[in-house]
Amino acid sequence: MSRLPQIEEHTACDVCHRTMLKGEWAEPYLTPSRERRLVCQLCAPHAQREGWIRESAAPNAPAQPQRQPERRGFRRFAARRREAASTFREAAAEREPENQPPREDTTEGNGHDEASAAPVLARLRKRAEPRKPRQIHAVPTNAQLKIGRALDLFNASEHPRTIGGLARTLGAPSASAVPAKASAAEIALTIAWELSWYQFTVDLSDPHEPVQLRAQGQELAELDEGVRAWNLETDEEGCLAPIGSSEQDTKPEPVAATQSGGEALD
Q1: pTM for this structure?
Q2: DSSP H or E run through 231
């Protein structure tokens, strides 16, 4: 009996090198050197931070040869050395005593050197200025409030879309939310099936990218007992909520009893 060729083919993510499960899909991205890479939905934020763009967003982008990293590093190193030398000459000229005759500058294009050194001096003065205090978001002190805030951040991210796609194939998962041991401002979210699990970390003090995928595996025995206390449920869209919260939201409000005349009983 011959096997179907599409069953034998397996697609793997070029970022995490994980084989795609049934129901997942990998989207083609283009690196800055125009190399084609397949990226899963969970690794899409990492690819965007590295400067990769979706192939569908630039279908006619010409392919370019990739530069050697050693050559780029040497050019950056040479540029930094030229900037440092120019800054050192300017600082040495300011420290010269007034009664000492000025040195003769034999370098051609002195006016051009001063103009090019001006941005460097401006950056140095800017670095010398005191830094502004870092804005830190207030983190709730109550564990339930932390978990509620973490669920809001997770549901507002792009990860529920992936969880919803897997749930349509693998069924409804088990999920839990517990405070992380590493930091008081982090909540660990675990979403697991019988043959696969994902663990996210929600940093309540990070205003830019609070939700990050930290670990994944295939066996439930790999998880600690503390995170296997399932206290969350998922909906069709992959969003997380405490168990029983949907029933409480849909429970009808009690109606006051009325007399035959239509007036409410006291």
Answers
A1: 0.44
A2: none
Residue 186 half-sphere exposure toward CB, CA atoms < 13 A:
15
pLDDT in tens, 219-262: 888 998 888 889 999 998 999 999 887 665 555 555 544 444 44
| Residue 255 dihedral angles phi and psi, to the nearest 5° | -105, 130
Closest CA relative to residue 199, chosen from 240, 165, 149: 240
List phi, psi (to 5°) of 41: -65, -30
Place of tokens 């930091």: 183
- For residue 251, the one-letter residue type is K
Pairing of strands 232-234, 53-54: unpaired
Q: Report d(CA 200, CA 157) in Å as an integer.
A: 12
Here the tokens at position 98 are 């007034």
Residue 15 token pair:
């970022």
| CA–CA gap between residue 171 and residue 200 (Å, rounded) | 20
Please, which residues have CB within 8 angstroms of residue 182's CB and are 6 or more apart in sequence? none
Chain segment 81-140, per-residue pLDDT in tens: 788 777 777 777 776 555 555 555 544 545 555 566 677 667 766 666 665 555 555 666
Q: Which stretches within 12-96 are classed as H helix?
A: 44-49, 69-95
Distance from C-alpha of 52 to C-alpha of 50, rounded to nearest angstrom: 6
Cβ partners under 8 Å of residue 190, min gap 6: 175, 176, 177, 178, 197, 198, 199, 200, 223, 227, 228
